[in-house]
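REQUEST FORM: STRUCTURE PREDICTION
Request ID: SP-0412
Submitted by: Lab K.M.
Chain count: 1
Length (residues): 479
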Amino acid sequence: MIGQDSIDRFVALLGPKGVVTDPDDIAPWVSDWRGRYHGAAVAILSPASTQEVAATVALAAELGVALVPQGGNTSMVGGATPPADGSALILSLRRMNRIRSLSPDDNLAVCEAGVILSILHDAAEEAGRRFPLSLGAKGSATIGGLVSTNAGGTQVLRHGTMRALVEGIEAVLPDGSIFDGLDALKKDNRGYDIKQLLIGAEGTLGVVTAASLRLAPAIAARAVGWVGVQTPADALALLRLAETMLGDSIEGFEVIADETLGFVLGHIPGTRSPIETRTPWHVLIEVDHADLSEPGPSDRLETALAEAFERGIAVDAAIAANEAQAEAFWRIRESLSESEKAQGPALQYDISVPVAKMPAFMIEAAQAAERAFPGTTASSFGHLGDGNVHFHVRAPKGTSDSPAWIAAQGQAINAFVHDAVVAAGGSISAEHGIGQMKRAELGRLASPARISALRAIKAAFDPMGLFNPGKLIPLPGEG
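STATUS: Completed
RESULT:
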């Protein structure tokens, strides 16, 4: 347990605003977003600058105190939850919430770790630009967390993950030194790319304090369409056709099972199906233009969909007539997780497989899971174009005790789904990270070379093991 003498040292360093010790104030930050992991911490440390972070980390190293970096606490894998034994303190970056600069000429924004994603969106829009990464938790997720988990979202098809959008990083390393890599250099051959090591490291190698982020031109015009198709294979064929006819103007391409659409229509007030025909699968597609050249995105999308009908790929389709309707289409997609959760206990998987294999995987893996675990139902939705879908296995109808069902069936279902993913050449974590939820499975399934490299890098950066203990790196016996 961390003693009061240590807490007093941190108070002397950061001042009363920089250390939270009231249990009621700490309580919301010791459980994960899904409510599956519950930790304990006697204090939250809240430095207000990079220098204060560095001093905090140095003091923690001197005292041998572990730190759990935390932003918006929106981790889907328990990646920002402190250990249950109270052996670590939470290092909150939420006070570091300045956008240090935003240059339309450079298409670059320098943001501190605590900047909330939606705040960056608004600031970029005011400057005639946009930051092309969005997700459901944009109102609470922070830049530091997005960098540390290499976040994805609905625009990866065109713009890539966070790794592709980060031009530079500032971070504090476990010895308290500051890595100043914010300069957005196009060419830099000074050995190992420290920036890329820190992206996706989940706070195990360093504390990201700021990032230089690539902006994109503002959208001048867009078209949002909803297409009914018979199979995921048809959805992929539609994507390839659209890429041929529309080029890189495709901003989003999401595939949704009809059953999952039904969950939204039944749970979210005011939602309605964009098309009249109930098809087995649906595609949400967005086409964006940065200028007002002719033909516009709606005309181009309509031409592409006409060709899809001609080829027998599409069954029914609708193009949003205005912005309100376009937002209504996207509201369906953004409500999928909430609507799935309302159906009862379920196990959710954020997985990726090679794009060419995804259509078959979506059908065959769901059928196989339902056979292996009678009474369950399985389906998936998500980013078909980048091979990442969210695969859900729902408990049998009438299951009311979610923890009991997960305790009884979770390990077996996890292994079944992850084995299927690996057999297809995929990854058990596409965009949510490993955290503590998938750590043992990573150890079970990853190659010895990968596990050895992860452990060696961790030991080199953090020999005392004080940065986000118990996350990402498989423990002894787990690989």
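NOTES: The domain at 99-217 is CATH 3.30.465.10 (Uridine Diphospho-n-acetylenolpyruvylglucosamine Reductase; domain 3).
Reviewed by: T.R.
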